[in-house]
Specification:
By secondary structure, this protein is an alpha/beta fold. Helices cover 34% and strands 28% of the residues. The strands form 2 sheets. A 4-stranded mixed sheet has the order 1-4-3-2, with helices on one face. The chain has a 4-stranded mixed sheet with strand order 5-8-7-6.
Length: 145
């Protein structure tokens, strides 16, 4: 059992949300679910969820960060998490149909932005700011100049 576990609040659609998340991620499963609560695991990360009602909504103040090795991974998560009413945002951010914010980010981005050559890093930053879904080839092109 993890010491710290994200706890998600849903408005009557807990079962739908948990089923959605555990089908989007290949390494995911439901540990237990009843009409009020659920425990599920995505890629080794435990989550708890509650059918709490309409009082609280998700906001961008909290997001789930997905590290991706390849463009195919980015494309897969982007397509699946925006399906059914999700909303694209800027710089790799999106909201799924339940309003939960996700960041779908290539691992190389941190390396590029942290490059000691600030000219290279700045080119990557400028390219990134023009993107919704990340394009690894375009980031690499900006890095290479």
């Amino acid at each position: 059992m993890q010491k710290i576990t994200p706890f998600l609040w849903f408005d009557g659609n807990l079962e739908e949300a948990v089923n959605f998340y555990t089908t989007v991620f290949p390494n995911a499963h439901v540990e237990n679910m009843n009409p009020m609560t659920a425990a599920f695991v995505i890629e080794g990360q435990e989550f708890m969820a509650l059918n709490g009602g309409p009082q609280f909504k998700f906001s961008e103040a909290v997001s789930v960060f997905i590290r991706c090795e390849t463009q195919a991974e980015i494309d897969y998560f982007w397509q699946h998490l925006t399906a059914g009413g999700g909303v694209e945002s800027q710089c790799g951010w999106l909201k799924d149909k339940f309003g939960l914010s996700w960041q779908v980010v290539p691992n190389v981005l941190g390396q590029y932005l942290g490059c000691p050559d600030r000219t290279r890093a700045q080119r990557v930053m400028q390219a990134m700011l023009k993107m919704t879904k990340f394009d690894i080839a375009a980031l690499e092109a900006a890095y290479e100049g």
